[in-house]
Amino acid sequence: MSNSALPALQRLIEVVARLRDPDGGCPWDLAQTPQSLIPYVIEEAYETVAALQTGTTADVCEELGDLLLQVMLQAQIASEQAQFTLADVADGISEKLIRRHPHVFGEDTADTVEAVRHNWEQIKAQEKGNAPARMSDGFQRYAHGLPPLMASLKISKKAAAFGFEWDRIEDVWEKVEEEWQELQEAIASGDKAHQEAELGDLFFALIQIARWQGLDPSQALQGTNHRFIQRLQTMEDNADRPLTDYDLAALDALWNQAKRQLGQGSPKPED
C-alpha cells in the first residue's frame, strides 16, 4: 500500500469513531453490536462479489468501501470494549502473511501455486501446535463460517485431499441417482425432516459432480438466478398485460419466447 492511502484510512478511522461517539454520534451506529452487524458483513461481501463479477470499476470501488466500513466498525466497537484495535487486526494479518510466505520474506522456495499451497498448509498446522490433522475440526469451521454451497464445496475438496474420494465420475453419478431416489421416497413418506435431510444429501452429491468438473456451484446457481430474472423481464416486456392475468399455457409460451430472444437454452425452472 502506498503512503498516499494512509491519510485516507486515518480519515475513515476518525469518521467511524465520530459516528460511535456517545457525545453527538449517530444513534444507529451507537446502537450496533458485533452481532447486529453480522447481516451487513454478509450483505456487503456478496455485493462486493457481484460488483467484481458484473459491475463497473466505480461499482467495485464503492462496494469495497462498504465492506471496509464493516471491518472498521467491528474494530471500533472492539476497541471501545478494550478487546483489540484496528492496528491489532492489521498487524495480525501482516504477521500471518509474512509467516506463511517464507518463499517471499524468507529463504524458502516455492515456484508453483501447488507448492505455495502445500507450504501454507504445513505452516498453518505448525501454528496450531502440530496437532494431528482432523478432518472434522476443519469441516466444522467451514460449516459454521461459510454459506452452505460454498461450505459443501470446500468440505468436498478437503475430504478428497484426505483420500475420501470416488475412483470414477460414474460412481459420483450413481450417488446422485441414489440420493434422488431417496428424496423421492422421503417425499412419498410425508416426513418433512426426512425430506429436508434427503434434499441436502442430493445437493451435496450434485456438488461432488461440480467439483469433478471444476465448476463453482454458487456461481452456477447465481447465474441461474440472473437468467431467470432476465427471462422474467423479457416476458413482461413482451406481454400486453400483467403476467398474473395469463394462464399457465400462455406463460409457458412467453417463457419459451423470452428464452429464444435471449439465446438461453437452459430448461425452465420446473424442468
CATH topology of the domain at 5-99: Helix Hairpins
Largest sheet: none
Fraction of residues in helices? over 70%
Structural classification: mainly alpha
CATH superfamily membership of the domain at 5-99, which one? Answer: MazG-like
Helix-strand string:
HHHHHHHHHHHHH
* Overall pLDDT level: 92
Architecture of the domain at 5-99, CATH level 2?
Answer: Orthogonal Bundle
- CATH top level of the domain at 5-99 is Mainly Alpha
Word description of this protein:
This protein is mainly alpha-helical and 271 residues long. 73% of the residues lie in helices and 0% in strands. The chain has 13 helices and no strands. The chain has helices at 5-19, 27-31, 38-54, 57-80, 86-99, 102-105, 113-127, 135-145, 148-161, 169-189, 192-212, 217-238, 248-262. Helix 9 crosses helix 11 (192-212). The longest helix has 24 residues, at 57-80. The model has no long low-confidence stretch (mean pLDDT 92).
